[in-house]
Amino acid sequence: MNIQLIRNATMVVEYAGKKFLIDPMLAEKGTLPAFGPAVGLPEAPRQDENNPLISLPTSIENIIQDIDAVTVTHLHPDHWDKAAIEALPKDIKLFSQNEEDATEIRNVGFQNVEVLQEDTVFKDIQLIKTKGEHGRGEILKAAGQVCGVVFKHSSEKTLYAAGDTVWYDAVQEVISTHKPEIIVVNAGDNQFLVGGSLVMGKEDVYEVYKATPDAKIIAVHMEAVNHWTLSREELKGFANEKGISSNILVPDDGESYKF
Questions:
Q1: Residue pair 198/45 in contact by the 8 Å Cβ criterion
Q2: Other CB atoms within 10 A of residue 2 CB
Q3: In this predicted structure, what is the pLDDT of residue 223?
Q4: Residue 117: exposure state from Cβ atoms within 10 A (0-12, 13-18, ≥19)
Q5: 16 to each of 68, 124, 156, how far by Cα in Å?
Q6: 38 DSSP assignment
Q7: 3-state class of 173 per DSSP?
Q8: Stated pTM of the model
Q9: SS3 content of the chain, % helix, strand, coil (to 5)
Q10: CA–CA separation, 160 vs 149, rounded Å?
């Protein structure tokens, strides 16, 4: 498999001969509002900076070229935006987390939308929908439902893309059940000034490592939208302090790994 981080949670995953685009946010730098009161959310860090904070590392045409399927773990605008809606072919195979999201995606013109299940199969690749919690406590109501995906195929290592979730017992259960060798975690510790972490911070990533110390863990969803709080540099330093830097991969935008 080959996993390329595009930006934020957007990745291109080549797996068992097929090419998946995950959580496409394809807007040009600074063309989306900052997360915060302007869009009905609490105050956030970098309130004066529009999203995305950085440019795409390559053109949209390059990103969507030869994509076989798209997975959208939820519909927050840093995972599914207007630019992606406009750029993607309307007949492309697209997987959503539930029927509610599928209806919204169909309503903007997409014709081949399927709701992920625990036993979805696409071109001999098993796609297993997994649970996620987009924060802890009260903020979960505002954050809404999300999912992750486990990829399995006889010719590939098992891949677990956890999506926008903090560490909690269901993530532990996915790891125990499916024993992924490659895990992608959304690890920018994004949060508002109230409500706590919405995705994994460094201690969450450490819990993932402790649950499966032989796996490679790829940390994405970093430094791309205005409410991030954990930098790549800080996470790398933390991994060095813990002596786990060979297990924790922190890619730059556009960087890829082959397994």
A1: no
A2: 12
A3: 98
A4: exposed
A5: 12, 9, 6
A6: G
A7: helix
A8: 0.97
A9: 25, 25, 50
A10: 6
